[in-house]
Amino acid sequence: MTECRGLWPATVLVLLVSAGLVGCSSNSSPAAPGTGGESASAAPSRSPLPPRPAVLRLVGVDPCALLTPQQARQFTPVPARRVANDQQPGSFDCIWSTFPTNPVNNWTTRAVLDHGAEYYLDSVTGAQLVQVAGFAAVQTSSSLADPEKQCLLYVDVAPGQALDVQYINPNGDYPGINHQVACQLASKAAELMVANLRNLVH
């Protein structure tokens, strides 16, 4: 059983990160909800999200650079690690984890380059529109893990792109953990990441 607990955090992280589309209703393409599969020549639908305060494009951004070493130590003393992004070959996600120290807290971020945050408004697990550092964000959960132990945030940083910031406490051992607390922990990291992203792209 000890070996299973040792593998559990990393396994869940990979599953959650890979679940960007799993948690959403099955559309034939990653078009924003309401486009109805219109052709590329048709006029684009108006975004259901409020206007952005800036456009922060994610192409070429290293997710591990979105927290400074000093900021990362607010979350864990363990160095960040990169994990291959199976949905976008050649790119990487970044994971900050307290494992093997308990409680086990994991934060993951990735650049979503093939559709915007509005896509996740169709999440089959439910979605809530929130704000992160002045940007609209879709807050939801993955269907692959207990929603009371995790939170997924998709921040609307650029047209057709989203900053994906996730938190999970896989063992459920964080004091008072529930979906709201998980989202507070995800949002705390996301606020710092968006502020750093502003500096990286300007």
What does this 3D model show about the protein?
There is one protein chain. The protein has 202 residues and is α+β, with helices and mostly antiparallel strands. The protein has one domain (2-23, 49-201): Protein Transport Mog1p, Chain A (3-Layer(aba) Sandwich), CATH 3.40.1000. It has helices spanning 2-17, 69-72, 179-201; strands at residues 81-84, 92-97, 106-112, 128-132, 135-140, 150-158, 161-168. The chain has a seven-stranded antiparallel beta sheet.
What's the layout of helices and strands?
Layout: H1 2-17, H2 69-72, E1 81-84, E2 92-97, E3 106-112, E4 128-132, E5 135-140, E6 150-158, E7 161-168, H3 179-201
Antiparallel strand pairs: 1-2, 2-3, 3-7, 4-5, 5-6, 6-7
Topology order in helix (H) and strand (E) letters: HHEEEEEEEH
End-to-end CA span: 48 Å
**Average pLDDT level:** 82
CATH fold-level assignment: Protein Transport Mog1p, Chain A
Which structural category fits the helices and strands? alpha+beta
Outline type: globular
Q: What does the largest sheet look like?
A: 7 strands, antiparallel
The tally of helices reads: 3
Radius of gyration over alpha carbons? 16 Å
Number of discrete domains: 1
Assign the CATH architecture. Answer: 3-Layer(aba) Sandwich
Helix content: 10-25%
List low-confidence stretches.
Answer: 1-15, 17-43
Number of strands: 7
Percentage of β-strand residues: 15-25%
| Highest CATH level, the class | Alpha Beta
Record the strand order, biggest sheet: 1-2-3-7-6-5-4
